[in-house]
Amino acid sequence: MKGMKIAYITSQTPYGKGEQFILPEILEVIKKGHDVVVIPVRPEKEIALGDEPKEVAKFTMHIPLLSLNLILKSFLIFIKHPLRVVEIIFKILRHSGSLGKILKNLLIIPKGLVVSEILKKRKINHIHAHWASTPSTLAYIASELTGIPWSFTAHRWDIAENNMLREKARSSNFIRVIDKNGYDEILSYVKEYRDKLYILRVGVKVDVNFKKLDLKKANRALLMAVPANFVVKKGHIYLIQAIKKVIETQNCNVYCYFFGKGLLEDELKLTVTQLNLEDRIFLKGQLPHDELIELYRSGKIDCVILPSIVTDDGEKEGIPVSLMEAMAHKIPVISTNTGGIPELLEGGAGIIVEQKNSDELAKAIMKLINDEKLREELGEKGFEKIEKEFNLSKIVEELLYLMGNN
């Protein structure tokens, strides 16, 4: 495919810590010979930790969400195209729904006007936004003003928010959803635009020749990892309880690293202390993405666990990249029957347990402790699943095809 000029609209990437899964996708698009400019809606001052954010930052424009200079520039653009801007404002008022979403979308307009001028000057061929929320609102505004075709990736919570979904579906060339559940959910909002919906998963890098290092040693401890920020949805508390049960039952040599940050950090530390697990569970902080991958490559991590739950307000997982990346390195995984996780682990690609059930989690961990052959089998099946269905290179090729042919 001939090289395209593509604008990626993100929420914060390469700033912030919440969109690390977007970094490899952007770098793969660049690797395949396309010119990319990345424009985050709410850029922070500091680039996220790691080599990947630094690399993506080379292709990123830091434009604040609001500033005096931005407002002045947007006013001049409004003077040039008053009718078109008023029409966009009218559509936002008409299609946003709640007052909260109206205000969020109106706040994006000044930056949308400025970005539209930038993309027009750069002769961008396609605009792609990650998230069906305000990043896609920015892309929508820029497309409406420039006529540049656009698309967006819808994940999970952003679908439920229903921020102008029908209007965005009408005006976009296609909508990418990352799992079957997401497809069914967004279809309920945009049935008349069914032909624009494509299931195209978020992928991870796969080395088809990857060989797991053999670190077998007599009585070596089982080291588990949980790469997930400390928020309710990730269910850390149930894993802490499960590890306590495992130790009480088998008194085995098992340890766990928690990689992440979040509001629940102090609460989790307190629980670990109260259960006398300070020498078993270690909160390691936020690990840069490339360092986490290198840890997987080293062969030191024996199992990755994601004890996710559905929160009281209905928040749940899509298909977690954190599990995919472990599976791509032949690391067995344990997770729960929430969101899109069963879709990822079906067919024996991992162990699925009931959410919010520390007893089932403990039993699954003990299975892996006691059965080395099972660990190897799960690692191989997980790798096969990722190579077949979640290979980043193949997924980006499909995404680029949609961008160039819709």
From TrEMBL:
<feature type="domain" description="Glycosyl transferase family 1">
    <location>
        <begin position="218"/>
        <end position="383"/>
    </location>
</feature>
<dbReference type="Pfam" id="PF00534">
    <property type="entry name" value="Glycos_transf_1"/>
</dbReference>
<dbReference type="GO" id="GO:0016757">
    <property type="term" value="F:glycosyltransferase activity"/>
</dbReference>
<keyword id="KW-0808">Transferase</keyword>
<protein>
    <submittedName>
        <fullName>Glycosyltransferase</fullName>
    </submittedName>
</protein>
<dbReference type="InterPro" id="IPR001296">
    <property type="entry name" value="Glyco_trans_1"/>
</dbReference>
